[in-house]
């Protein structure tokens, strides 16, 4: 019947010993970081040399390679780059043509509203028939458009 207190004492001693080892280690990071990029890839390889010094153990040198996906935003968006069909999960649709015209409506509906638009930086400015304007934010490198007035995100069809 004395196994439970013995087991608890054993676990507590192990935890204290583990914490003592972690506290007694003096880790300093010295080294160099280099990056490799290639023209045909959108990833960067980062190689770092880390010199870790632990007091009770011997010196170690590790080389770590980390690959990171880099999403590059185009310098500026154009009507040609934004042309396409954008849909929401709720079946709302925006269509942008390369000539600066577009339409808004529901998927499957025969009713739609035409508009003119132009691209300014990372925004699409829509001019409706009554001369009112709506500003949409371009996201994900042009793969989605966010309409803050209606809190809608439109995803471009591939």
Rg, rounded, reads 29 Å
Largest sheet: 8 strands, antiparallel, barrel
Q: Helical segment tally?
A: 2
Return the average pLDDT rounded to an integer.
76
How many strands?
11
Low-confidence stretches: none
In terms of DSSP E residues, the strand content is 35-45%
What does this structure look like?
By secondary structure, this protein is an alpha+beta fold. 16% of the residues lie in helices and 44% in strands. The mean pLDDT is 76. It contains two helices and eleven strands, in the order αβββαββββββββ. The protein is elongated.
Q: What descriptive keywords fit this protein?
A:
158 residues; alpha+beta; 11 strands; 3-stranded antiparallel β-sheet; elongated; 2 helices
How is this fold's topology laid out?
Layout: H1 3-24, E1 33-37, E2 43-52, E3 60-69, H2 79-82, E4 84-87, E5 92-96, E6 101-106, E7 112-120, E8 123-127, E9 133-139, E10 144-147, E11 152-156
Antiparallel strand pairs: 1-2, 2-3, 4-5, 4-11, 5-6, 6-7, 7-8, 8-9, 9-10, 10-11
């Amino acid at each position: 019947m004395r196994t439970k207190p013995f087991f608890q004492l054993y676990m507590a001693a192990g935890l204290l010993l583990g914490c003592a080892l972690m506290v007694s280690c003096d880790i300093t990071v010295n080294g160099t970081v280099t990056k490799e990029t290639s023209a045909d890839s959108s990833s960067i390889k980062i190689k770092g040399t880390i010199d870790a010094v632990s007091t009770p153990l011997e010196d170690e040198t590790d080389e770590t390679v980390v690959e990171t996906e880099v999403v590059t935003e185009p310098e500026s968006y154009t009507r040609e780059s934004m042309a396409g069909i954008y849909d929401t999960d709720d079946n709302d649709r925006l269509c942008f043509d390369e000539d600066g015209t577009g339409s808004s409506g529901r998927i499957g509906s025969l009713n739609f509203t035409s508009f003119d638009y132009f691209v300014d930086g990372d925004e699409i400015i829509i001019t409706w028939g009554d001369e009112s304007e709506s500003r949409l934010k371009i996201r994900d490198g042009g793969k989605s458009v966010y309409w803050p007035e209606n809190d809608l995100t439109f995803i471009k069809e591939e």
